[in-house]
Fold Probable S-methyl-5'-thioinosine phosphorylase.
Amino acid sequence: MDREISFAIIGGVGLLKNNGYEKMTISSTYGDVECFIGKTSGINFAFIPRHSISGPHIPPHMINYHAIICAVKKLGVKHVIATNSVGSMKGHPTGSFFIPDDFIDFTKGRESTYYHDQTVHVDMSQPYCPQLRQSLMSALQEKKEEFFEGTYICTEGPRFETKAEIKMMASFGDVVGMTGLPEVILAREMKICYASICTVTNPACGMSNERLTADEVVSVLKKREKVLFDLIVNAFLCMDEKKTCICRLAKDQACL
């Protein structure tokens, strides 16, 4: 790249509604990734859609998470905020925001590491960058947006969860989604600071009397897209430039 990319957003295609993006393809040994370069408040940023723009919609269990994080690394980006849609298992209001501070991985068939020929135990005691999380929460407080913190549970998808599964998972975590893992783990292996801001789109399956549909999820996301984008930009602009987290040291201090 012949220009500095200050930060990256990984998320849904709705955030591409703003004009002026430059499309590019980033190749790696894990595959090609669509990337869109934009500019806001005088700084360049990258947006990487998980579900594809030019081709068919990619379901959560088929997303090439390894290629996405490789693309972020190739762009020279050190800070990423991911957007995720989640169902609430604790009664959070639809349309509110959720900032994960931990996760539980209930996926089944996803490779969760770049290291297949050696044993690397990367520290995940703080899986989400505390500095980025604080910036997001400060932006939410400034805009007087309702938000919550807690544990994100990731399931394999693409089906929604059963009532029994939600009942079990509600004893472990707060919200449930399908796109958060293994992305956060791979970012840590690549020494990238990573945080997530989730939009609560619905009560988790079995938490209400109504049948859950994908259209319901999309409808809530569309209503919150502009607010979400502005929050992310404000979080990056207000972030303390002094590095205080240890995200980039997690692999160096790993047990080999």
Q: What stands out?
A: The chain has five helices and nine strands.
